[in-house]
Automatic annotation (TrEMBL):
This is pepsin A. It comes from the Eukaryota. Residues 1-16 form the signal peptide. Its EC number is 3.4.23.1. The active site is at D88, D269. Residues 70-370 form the Peptidase A1 domain. Disulfide bonds join C101-C106, C260-C264, C302-C334. GO terms for molecular function: aspartic-type endopeptidase activity. GO terms for biological process: digestion; proteolysis. The gene is PGC. Shows particularly broad specificity; although bonds involving phenylalanine and leucine are preferred, many others are also cleaved to some extent. PANTHER family: BETA-SITE APP-CLEAVING ENZYME, ISOFORM A-RELATED (PTHR47966), PEPSIN A-3-RELATED (PTHR47966:SF22).
């Protein structure tokens, strides 16, 4: 992986910074819209983002987020086999398609072949990850996983044998989860925790998602790049040590509370594209910015973006403001990045994370947020 950058202090391997470039690719929605298939697709596979967080420990769910755009490249095995994965702070397992999978979603993605790796070992355990519109089934195995030029030997990972149909439209082959170990299906040790345990990196990582250019989008294991944020870092304690879950104080427009009255729980999630909230609160936000509903999308006039109000998410006594240029997405139409789920839980996805550099600290059980530059 020639593009990987590894920054290591000479004094100790544990001070190593592993920078993984992320790629902003075409989303499933964009691909389907180009083919005129989006309306058919969205009706067949409705999007329920909070399904991902509504399961018991060890029974992980995912949902068909058609707007996910960011992925990175890792390799598995000896010699290495490369895969595009979503680095997902909202889940804990690593899995990729296998040569034993015949689902349509596997046929147009890279598949891992155990017979081609000299370091492969079958773990002898089944794996099942439920989706909002289907499921992924497979089994667990061990092999060397390379992330950002760092090799993690004997890493447990999943190999899919069946996958939900909507995955066939996504650019990424699989998912690398970055949430806490207790959430991992079948008790699999997450890659990041294994890296820390083996002394390869320190026990925190950071993510920078630029909305201006895809040239400087990255994830850093064991480090922070202070050239990509401005001002002080706001450290927010976790309210639960499973996901990267925090307490939001309120959501305001022009100083008036319009959502999250009295506080609410939110998950900071790189594996969700939008900002998700309860139906009534999301309706209030979309109404405040002048959006109207059209086939499930909160649509706005593209000419009005410059005059639309800021949305402020108040967290731990600090204001995190999103201008309309951040929360409006353009494509075949202009629509807001606010969507509803089926619970009281909020998800701060890529719409929020493109504006704020995020740091995930397992040592202090906190999330750091700073204004991106």
């Amino acid at each position: 992986m020639k593009w990987a950058i590894v920054l290591c202090a000479m004094v100790a391997l544990s001070e190593c910074l592993v920078r993984v470039p992320l790629i902003k690719g075409k989303t499933a929605r964009e691909s389907l819209e180009e083919k005129g298939l989006w309306e058919e697709y969205r009706k067949r596979y409705p999007y329920n983002p909070t399904d991902k967080f509504g399961y018991a420990v060890g029974d992980e769910q995912m949902t068909n987020d058609a707007d996910l755009a960011y992925f990175g490249v890792i390799s598995i095995g000896t010699p290495p086999q490369s895969f595009k994965v979503i680095f997902d702070t909202g889940s804990s397992n690593l899995w990729v398609p296998s040569v034993y999978c015949s689902s349509a979603a596997c046929n147009n993605h890279q598949k891992f072949s155990p017979s081609l790796s000299s370091t492969y070992k079958n773990a002898g355990k089944p794996l099942r990850i439920r989706y909002g519109t289907g499921s992924m089934t497979g089994f667990l195995a061990y092999d060397t996983v390379e992330v950002g030029g760092i090799q993690v030997p004997k890493q447990i990972f999943g190999l899919s044998q069946t996958e939900a149909p909507f995955m066939s439209h996504m650019k990424a082959d699989g998912i690398l989860g970055l949430a806490f170990p207790r959430l991992a299906a079948s008790g699999a040790q997450p890659v990041f925790n294994n890296m820390v345990k083996q002394g390869l990196v320190q026990d925190y990582f950071s993510v920078y998602l630029s909305r201006i250019t895809s040239k400087y989008i990255f994830l850093i294991f064991g480090g922070v790049d202070n050239s990509h944020y401005t001002g002080a870092i706001t450290w927010v304690p976790l309210s639960a040590e499973t996901y990267w879950q925090i307490t939001v104080d309120s959501i305001t427009v022009n100083g008036n509370v319009i959502a999250c009255h009295g506080g609410c729980q939110a998950i900071v999630d790189t594996g969700t594209s939008l900002i998700i909230g309860p139906t009534s609160d999301i309706s209030s936000i979309n109404s405040a910015v002048g959006a109207t509903m059209n086939n499930g999308d909160a649509v706005v006039n593209c000419k009005d973006i410059s005059s639309m109000p800021d949305i402020t998410i108040n967290i731990h006594g600090h204001a995190f403001t999103l201008p309309a240029s951040t929360y409006v997405r353009s494509g075949y139409s202009c629509r807001t990045g606010f969507s509803h789920g089926r619970s009281n839980l909020w998800i701060l996805g890529d719409v929020f994370l493109r504006e704020y550099y995020s740091i995930y600290n397992m040592a202090d059980n906190s999330v750091g947020l700073a204004k991106s530059v």
